[in-house]
Each structure stands twice: as structure tokens, then as C-alpha cells.
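#lab-general

N.A. 3:47 PM
ok so I finally got the sequence cleaned up, no stray characters, all 317 residues accounted for. can someone with queue access submit it? mine expired

B.Y. 3:52 PM
send it over

N.A. 3:53 PM
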Amino acid sequence: MAVTAYAPASTGNVSLGFDILGLALAPIDGTLLGDRVSVLSEQAEFSLVNTGRFAHKLPADATQNIVYDCFIGFQKEMAELGIEVQPVAMQLEKNLPIGSGLGSSASSIVAALAALNAYYGNPLNSEKLLRLMGKLEGQISGSVHYDNVAPCYLGGLQLMLESEQKISLSLPVFDDWYWVICYSGASVSTSAAREILPAQYDRSTTIDFGRQLAVFVDALHRGDRALAAAVMNDVIAEPYRKSLLKNFDAARSYAEQEGALAFGISGSGPTVFAAVDSQQTAANIKLWLEQNYIQNEDGFAHICKVDTRGTQVSEDV
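B.Y. 4:20 PM
back already:
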């Protein structure tokens, strides 16, 4: 029996929640904007087949792939529980570009660990599995953080709590908002995007950050769309990271002119997002971004809604 897990794309930060907010995304046209990982069978040696639009960007050596790291991490976790895990044959359908700001590594990690856990009868509960996902993500970024893996796994809009009991809290979302995302085709590494940020921030900036996040969460719970949109302003990363993104200011200007509620950088970039309350406005912004923000054949744009389901696991007999 084979097991397949699909893990959706996500946008970290959502402008005003640096490292502590994340949102799962689902294109309204049904496109699978996320990675799929299958565990096919047990065998003598580990093997991995890469497929999908961005498979050619992955290392040819299976042991250099994050999916292999997930298998080793899961195997060690099971050994601590007294469960022996044999080598397996796996398949990665890589639909997300690497270094896109759409949680590409998180999607592969979450799908791989969800599939492995299901294949072995779900020995890890959701909280333990999520912590393992964060640990594996940390191996790539250099530090454990959950702003992509939590929404990717759980769905919806997640606020990182990271207590001993619970990793994240699910926040309300506005069902009538559309999220236009556009990947330029360029690549921005998380480490490079972090290096461009200042080591310290002044008091007024940190006060603005705290105020905006508090007001945003309150507005979500009270259903105040106008107030929530008004505080979606990135005072931490965007002023510095936008220099890495070609045509960012023009994209923001057009989106705001068209009536976007908010516009910002998805995660570390170069993907940008616009939050809007009209499908026609979303279509206009998507078209402009396709014509003016995309730089090469790898780029794409989608109109999305919030993916409230998160990771989906299926079994193939």
C-alpha cells in the first residue's frame, strides 16, 4: 500500500508578522500549488524519484535531497520509540520553485513526514510531527521556525506560539478575500534575505510592529476587515528586502491603484502577494504582474484563497 501526502504552498510573515505568522494558499482554479510526496514500498535501500515542474532544480543525488533527510529524521524518531523503519522507495512531485518565498522546503518536508507517518500507522501525533517538521526546516534555514511548516501542515492562518504544549494558534480568516501571488522566476535564499536585515531595530519600529500585530489579531477576531487591512504594513523586512526584488515598487503602486487591501513580500521573496476583496481586482493585478513582474519562464501567478485544509494524505492500495 502506497501513501501520498500533498502539502500546500504558504506565505510566511504576511507582511506584519515577521517569523510568527503564516498562511496556507490554494489557487481558485484548482492548480496544485504545493509538493506531493509518496511512500511507495519498503525495500533494501532508500530510493527517491523526482517529478514535477521544478524537479530539474533538485540534486541528482537522492541523499542530498531534503526528503532523504526527512526519512533519516523519521527513522531516528521511530528508533527512540522502539519502532524499526526499513529503507523505502519514495517519490517527490516538486511543484514549488526553490527559494521562491512560498515555503518550498516546508512543503517538501511536511509532505514527506506526513506520508511517512501515515505509511507506518501514524505513530506520531500532530504536535510531535509538527515539531519534527520544524526541526528539519531548521536544518535548511539555520534555525527552527514554523511560520511555513505550521500553515502548510495545519492549513489556514497560523500564529506561532511555540510553547512546550503547542506550536501555533489558528486565527480566523476572511473568506471573501482573494490572495494574488506572483513568483518572478528569480531565486532569493532565506539566508541572503536574512543577512540584509539589520541586527537591531529602534524602539519606535518595535513598538509599531507589536501594535500592528496586536491590532490585526483583534481585528480578525472581531471581523473588522478594514482595520485588519489597514495595519498590514511590513516595518521589519520589506524596507530592506525590496531592494532584492526587481520592479517591486511598481508592482505595489499598481496593486494599490487597483484597490488592493494590502501588498507585500511573501516570506523572503521574490514572490509578492496582494490581498483583495474583489475577484475582478484580483484578475487585473494578476495580469499586470504576469506582464511586468515575471522575469523568466519559471515565473507564475495565481489567484488564491486561504487553504483551510492543510496537508492531505491519501492511500493507494
